[in-house]
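> agent: user asked for a holo structure of the chain below bound to glyceraldehyde-3-phosphate. Plan: (1) validate sequence alphabet, (2) canonicalize SMILES, (3) run complex prediction with ligand conditioning, (4) return tokens. Step 1... ok. Step 2... ok. Step 3 dispatched.
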Amino acid sequence: MAARNPGVEFDPSWIQSVHVNLPATKRRAEQLGIRRTVKKHYQAAWELRAVTCIDLTTLAGDDTLSNVNRLCFKAKNPVMRELIKAMDVEDLGITVGAVCVYPNRVADAVRSLKAAGASHIPVASVATGFPCGQTPLKTRLEEIRLAVEDGAREIDIVINRQMALTGDWKGVYDEVKMMKEACGEAHLKTILATGELGNLVNVYKASLVCMMAGADFIKTSTGKEGVNATLMVGLVMVRAIREYFERTGYKIGFKPAGGIRSAKDACTWLSLMKEELGDEWTRPDLFRLGASSLLIDIERQLFHFVYGRYAASHEIPMS
Ligand SMILES: O=C[C@H](O)COP(=O)(O)O
């Protein structure tokens, strides 16, 4: 397990020095989806790895105790038992990386995982006026404290886009630093909402600022913006993670989120991590996929790997 990032002093000259080569980023992102394809056993292995990195998410106004219970059952048993047996991976004890819910559902999720004997799976809560962050700072900080009190071990905050868009990076830094303090022992994931940051330079700057303020993870999107996780944005963010690591020695995690629905997409994100940051960043302590419906497709692909045909929907009922 990597040492947690304590953050560093705000460094405006580092922020000012940021620039992004747009055509090169575009070219590299385009190659990612097509250059590397994994097949057969390798594909199944990558898909299983992707499962372990999923923050299995439900973030809906109509979330209830019963769908949170169902989500937690799925978190503990993400792939049908017969597939796990057929692939001979029972001893790996595969679960998802975390369950991600709204603050009001944290206590339900903690209870439900406990009842399922799966308290080792952390509950992550979005907080700070997710998804827009348009509530007073005092309220946003209190929301974090309450979610932690209810048992959240990871907190996904949204950054202040108004400050980011007006270039008030010190303001963003100060808020994120206070949020980190409010998290206590809980891990802090900072959502940049990249679809609302205007350009890739702002994405890089926001990534650096959050890491300087002590983020454990940087995350692309809430899943509620018009444009969510894209490979271009992902590339810029992982390059910022690399630069932060080279300058400070701290390893920060990355979480693309929003619109990731296919096993192929999940493998492409994994290959981005492997190629840009190395194998260490393809594991759940440094990589998560925020997704509400990705698991269905991964399970379907694994079914195809085992049986050589796609499942009828009644054959994967818990998906
Ligand atoms: O953080 C997770 C996202 O909200 C999930 O987005 P999604 O529903 O598009 O998978």
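> agent: step 4 complete. Summary for user: The chain has one domain: 39-306. The pocket of glyceraldehyde-3-phosphate is lined by residues 57, 59, 100, 222-223, 257-260, 290-293 (CB under 6 Å).
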